[in-house]
Each structure stands twice: as C-alpha cells, then as structure tokens.
Write a structure and sequence with these properties.
about 40% helix; two-stranded antiparallel ribbon; alpha+beta
Length: about 90
C-alpha cells in the first residue's frame, strides 16, 4: 500500500498532503464483512480505516491523534459516516 507524500510551500506555510489508493483495503474489508468475519461478541472488528483517512479526519476536525484516541466520539463518528462504509466490517452500533 504505497503512500505518496507531497509537500506544498506557500509563503510561510508548509502543507503535507498524503495520498493512498485505498481500494484494496476497502475490498478486503468488504470480503471480511461478506464472510461474516466480524470477530466475537467480546471483541468486534468494526472497521479497518487506512491511516490517510484518519489523518484527513484529524485535519478536518482540527484535532490531534491523541485527542482522536482519547475521545470515543471521534471513532464513533467515523464508523457512522456513510462515506466510509466501505471500510466497515461489522455493521452494528458501536
């Protein structure tokens, strides 16, 4: 899964852009879903989000990765986002 990083410098601002083709991850996740490989009742495999998608969420919300991990509302928000449904393995409520 190759990730390309582009660096943009404009004036005094530096922006990092990371690009990844996530098709293979989405296809694998959907295969797990169709096969019913959702984990156990004690530990569900809810989704497999590529890091570039998590990074986009962090940038859009203006939060750090530490905040993302500390506050479950962020993970729930990503799990509930219909645009990210291709990365869901287990479709139940989290």
């Amino acid at each position: 899964m190759a990730v390309t990083t582009n660096i943009h410098v404009e004036g005094g601002d530096v922006t990092f852009e990371r690009i990844q083709d996530c098709t293979a991850i989405a296809e694998h996740t959907q295969a797990l879903h169709k096969e019913g490989l959702h984990g156990s009742t004690d530990m569900r495999h809810a989704a497999s989000f590529p890091m570039v998608i998590v990074e986009k969420y962090l940038n859009d919300k203006g939060i750090s990765f530490q905040e993302f991990m500390a506050e479950a509302v962020h993970v729930r928000s990503m799990l509930a986002d219909p645009a990210l449904s291709a990365f869901r393995v287990w479709g139940g409520r989290v």
